[in-house]
């Protein structure tokens, strides 16, 4: 939904003067994939009672928007496997905020048209490999052809913008970076390369050994394509480049090599309703307790959100050399 950025100043301002205008909601911890950098092979998912209901999720989103948030992203786990997700999307689609979804693409061939019709503005679709075997090894359970069909369905549905996300691991899929860019250009979509973050203990690989920095990728890509620096500010860890001969943009999400904390404009809510003030820190507020102790009371919830801004830390510290992850939650609890 289009909104006038100037007419709705956010009431969510932290101790460092940063305005929070963007909320990422994790709507489920479940997923049909088991990507090696995100989950363990055997996962214990939360009992349903610990997960916010669709009504509770909607109340939280509405409270944020009433306080001036203008961008909502649904993530997970895989948001499109949450039962009833289209009902929530329909409600959120009517709020005066931009609505985005991050998805693995597995359900898109059947859902893309409905998502567009119900008000989703933009999609991020994860795609780490264009080779079926490698895709399978990275996602453990995913089927590449299903995701490619989903990407085509999303393009046909006519979203304002579609962006592919690839987590690049050295020796696993760094040889596909140029192929992925060629694919994005061919499809007329954007692509962003993500540095792996140390969230949750995984045993499948050593994160430090497979770490592939955005600067290395930038050098490799620049040898093939002339990238034009774009000064677009995202308030997050992404930097974007344009290409002279294509509308597709190339982005890099670099939580390790580029500190973006001073511009941070976002907060996240885990699937259990824990409001995380920073992806790289444990500072949080239990919103599930608030919504369950005061059902449907949006004013009490809004007061808590305003108070929570006091907890937002100045910056994160990810340290790859440290073998124990500082952050013990898996990415599927918080969303990307
Ligand atoms: N299931 C959806 C998907 O895969 O797009 C949404 C949730 S997923 C957690 C969101 C994004 O986080 C994906 O692009 C995924 O590749 C990325 N991601 C997961 N674990 C990560 C990690 N340890 N480091 C960096 N990115 C990660
Ligand atoms: Fe599922 Fe997304 Fe995590 Fe992969 S990255 S396991 S698709 S939640």
From TrEMBL:
Keyword rRNA-binding: no
Alphabetized Gene3D superfamilies for the sequence: Aldolase class I (3.20.20.70)
Domain of life of the native organism: Bacteria
Residues binding [4Fe-4S] cluster 1: 31, 35, 38
One Pfam entry name: Radical_SAM
Reaction(s) catalysed by this chain's protein: GTP + AH2 + S-adenosyl-L-methionine = (8S)-3',8-cyclo-7,8-dihydroguanosine 5'-triphosphate + 5'-deoxyadenosine + L-methionine + A + H(+)
Transmembrane stretches, start-end: none
Pathway: Cofactor biosynthesis; molybdopterin biosynthesis
UniProt EC number: 4.1.99.22
Class in the EC hierarchy, top level: lyase
Record's function text: Catalyzes the cyclization of GTP to (8S)-3',8-cyclo-7,8-dihydroguanosine 5'-triphosphate.
Protein name: GTP 3',8-cyclase
Species, as recorded: Amphritea atlantica
Encoding gene (name): moaA
């Amino acid at each position: 939904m289009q909104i006038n950025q100037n007419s709705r100043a956010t009431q969510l301002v932290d101790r460092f003067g940063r305005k929070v205008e963007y909320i990422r909601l994790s709507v489920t911890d479940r997923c049909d994939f088991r990507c090696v950098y995100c989950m363990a092979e055997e996962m214990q998912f939360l009992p349903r009672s610990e997960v916010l209901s669709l009504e509770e999720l909607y109340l939280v989103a509405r409270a944020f928007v009433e306080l001036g948030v203008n961008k909502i992203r649904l993530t997970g786990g895989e948001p499109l496997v949450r039962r009833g997700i289209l009902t929530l999307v329909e409600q959120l689609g009517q709020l005066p905020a931009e609505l985005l979804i991050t998805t693995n693409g597995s359900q898109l061939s059947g859902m893309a048209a409905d998502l567009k019709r119900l008000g989703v503005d933009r999609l991020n679709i994860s795609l780490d490999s264009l080779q079926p075997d490698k895709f399978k090894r990275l996602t453990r359970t995913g089927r590449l052809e299903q995701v490619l069909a989903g990407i085509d369905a999303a393009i046909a549905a006519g979203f304002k913008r579609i962006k592919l996300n690839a987590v690049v691991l050295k020796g696993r899929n760094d040889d596909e970076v140029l192929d992925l860019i060629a694919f994005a250009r061919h499809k007329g979509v954007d692509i962003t390369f993500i540095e792996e973050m140390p969230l949750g203990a995984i045993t499948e690989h050593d994160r430090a050994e497979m770490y592939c920095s955005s600067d290395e990728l930038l050098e490799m890509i620049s040898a093939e394509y002339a990238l034009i620096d774009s000064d677009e500010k995202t308030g997050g860890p992404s930097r974007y480049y344009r290409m002279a001969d294509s509308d597709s943009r190339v982005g890099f999400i670099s939580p390790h090599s580029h500190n973006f904390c001073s511009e941070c404009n976002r907060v996240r809510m885990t699937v259990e309703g824990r409001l995380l003030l920073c992806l790289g820190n444990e500072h949080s507020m239990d919103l599930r307790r608030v919504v369950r102790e005061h059902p449907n009371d949006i004013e009490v919830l809004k007061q808590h959100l305003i108070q929570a801004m006091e907890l937002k830390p100045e910056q994160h510290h990810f340290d790859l050399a440290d073998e124990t992850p500082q952050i013990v939650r898996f990415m599927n609890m918080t969303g990307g």
